[in-house]
Amino acid sequence: MFDGTIGELIEQLGRLPGVGPKSAQRIAFFVLQNPNYDPRDLADVLASIRERVRFCDTCGMLATDTECDICQDVRRDETVLCVVEEAKDVWAIERTREYRGRYHVLGGALSPIDGIGPDQLRIRELMARLGNSAITEVIIATDPNLEGEATASYLSRMLEQPGLTVSRLASGLPVGGDLEYADEVTLGRAFAGRRSV
Amino acid sequence: MFDGTIGELIEQLGRLPGVGPKSAQRIAFFVLQNPNYDPRDLADVLASIRERVRFCDTCGMLATDTECDICQDVRRDETVLCVVEEAKDVWAIERTREYRGRYHVLGGALSPIDGIGPDQLRIRELMARLGNSAITEVIIATDPNLEGEATASYLSRMLEQPGLTVSRLASGLPVGGDLEYADEVTLGRAFAGRRSV
């Protein structure tokens, strides 16, 4: 149905998440024919993106330097730390514009069935950060599902220490859902209504 | 919110049609972190696609050779020709698997307000194809809108010649649709084009 390279383009576009066969054809047509679009711009970024992106030494967020932009930003509140599972959760929280503190990216959630225990997550790094810093509050923002809740309870026990407030995002997020897909208002409300654990 | 190259990737992905800000972030995360995905495959195709794709000398379809796969396919019926506006219309018709004839891509529809007259479309090429070929039926499959209808009437006048059947795709209610929500024009067409059962 599609000539050589065109078929390859449509197939490659169809591998992206959320892009079905029809969307892939629509995007391919745009890429091929839109006079205001140069596909080489996207090609350039894609060609080198994996080499150019690393993890922030401090928080574990995706970064293009040894530290990510958020960790480098001196205007962010150093006393509050928000613990999330994945880099995409940081993006979701940043979209709410409700939170001005720092982040810590665990790199996943506890899931014994998948062989992910505390040592597979960046929990040791989290404890080290708390040891010598101005952090007075930790907000646990793991996903509101089974693994996320398990991780939250584990962390809340680990973080029990004098002078440190530990909170969990307020329920209001649909249970069984995925933090990444929460709308900005709901996620913002969840931040505002966080309660100590 | 996004570090250098990551922000650039998200911005570039967001320029694709049908990809909103959230989808762009989701795709970016996949591109950055999915272990089974190599973004260089898509990068390679995008980098050279415009140079590698041309228009089929015969039908005007997007092709990677002087003739497209459909024109080269000897199993296709040479006696029927389907005239469409754009390459993506060929893809849409091919998806139905109902049609086994040939195509002719006009490259648009008549639209005096946009300065598109018969000379801007591949109508001369269409007439030349009809002159020396086995074609006995032409199906006009332009879009069912103002420009498409105007193009269809123009073509049907141009194509009046002995031994050549000219038809237009049926207008009517979409299958699986709801009569209650059909617009007046579509419903009117469905009445006018009613067939005995």
TrEMBL record, chains A, B:
PROSITE patterns attached to this UniProt entry: RECR, TOPRIM
Record bears the keyword DNA damage: yes
InterPro entries named in the record: DNA_Rcmb_RecR, Rcmb_RecR, Rcmb_RecR_Znf, TOPRIM_dom, TOPRIM_RecR
Transmembrane segments annotated in the record for this chain: none
Function per UniProt: May play a role in DNA repair. It seems to be involved in an RecBC-independent recombinational process of DNA repair. It may act with RecF and RecO.
Zn finger (C4-type) start-end: 56-71
CDD domains: TOPRIM_recR
Keywords, sorted A to Z: DNA damage, DNA recombination, DNA repair, Metal-binding, Zinc, Zinc-finger
Sequence ranges assigned to domain Toprim in this UniProt record: 79-174
GO biological process: DNA recombination; DNA repair
GO molecular-function term, one example from the UniProt record: zinc ion binding
HAMAP family: RecR
Family: Belongs to the RecR family.
Annotated protein name in UniProt: Recombination protein RecR
